[in-house]
Design brief:
By secondary structure, the chain is α/β, with parallel strands linked by helices. It is 41% helix and 13% strand. The chain is built from seven helices and five strands. The structure holds uracil.
């Protein structure tokens, strides 16, 4: 896959409703690659991942638990185009977009991966149970190890308990040497 083609991808129907492909952003060879679910409205408009309220929470938790500034890690999504009305991406959309994620990982060579939310945990690490069971679990994608945690949107909905769980998951990642 030629990553230069990603901004023009029309491989699934999401290209008909998106404003732009949200490729992701961050430095090459990052200590951490964060993989979310799919762009929301703000991301679709601006082209940057995780810039909305849930993204701000995630950035803060990563800073507080891992000591990493946003400029030090790469952020992308499992599916690069916004699903209409922010619905959950379909399995077919995840499968169609997967080669792009594989190409990004091969190009970036991150040291660790944080899969954020159910869709990413399943797609990236192949976990076949829901995030309430797989959060904090160590996973592997190609040669890169990492951890899954809740999506920060779930923490915004559910409150401080989920934030505490996310902090603990991030500490597991830190113990793996991020
Ligand atoms: N939620 C995600 O999973 N990714 C984004 O980029 C924004 C919100």
């Amino acid at each position: 896959m030629d990553l230069a083609e990603l901004p023009h991808c029309c491989a699934c129907a999401l290209h008909t409703t998106r404003t732009r492909v949200v490729v992701g952003s961050g430095p090459p060879g990052p200590r951490l690659l964060v993989v979310g679910e799919a762009p929301g409205r703000h991301e679709d408009e601006g082209g940057e991942p995780f810039v909305g309220r849930s993204g701000q929470l995630l950035v803060r938790l990563i800073l507080e638990e891992l000591g990493l500034e946003r400029a030090q890690y790469f952020v992308t999504n499992t599916v690069k185009c916004r699903p209409p009305h922010n619905r959950t991406p379909r399995a077919s959309e995840v499968a169609t977009c997967r080669p792009w994620l594989e190409a990004q990982i091969a190009a970036l060579w991150p040291a660790r991966i944080l899969a954020v939310g159910n869709v990413a945990a399943r797609a990236v690490f192949g976990f076949d149970e829901g995030i309430s069971r797989t959060h904090g679990r160590r996973g592997q994608y190609l040669d890169v190890a990492g951890v899954a945690t809740y999506h920060p949107a779930a923490a915004l909905r559910a409150g401080p308990n989920v934030v505490d769980v996310m902090r603990a998951d991030l500490r597991s990642l830190r113990s793996m040497g991020v």
